[in-house]
Amino acid sequence: MTPEQLKAKFPNASADFIAANSRTPAALESNSGDAPLAPRQVQTGRARKILVSVTSFRRKLADQDGLCEKYFLDCCKYAGFIPDDSPTEIELVTKQKKVSKGEPEETVIELFELD
Fold it and tell me: Is the pLDDT of residue 44 over 90?
């Protein structure tokens, strides 16, 4: 994200935060394959779907529709981890695992690029 985009999304962010999170997009390398490149032939952006796995570790299991995975998807989208939460861009898997008393309750979100 550019510094301007960061300032727009996080108006109260410190200068250190802006500096640490500002980056220019990496230039994509040419993909030569087996033949020479055409004059304007370069790699394009990611064409793969992203698997988003949301695992909830809880003492008392929730109803299947009670995990609120939409909230986590929106957070991933706003943070720039996924381009969009549409079915053409991601595949969503939600799981619950019961934990014993004394073990922490938590939600683990994992992102994987699919082939």
Answer: no
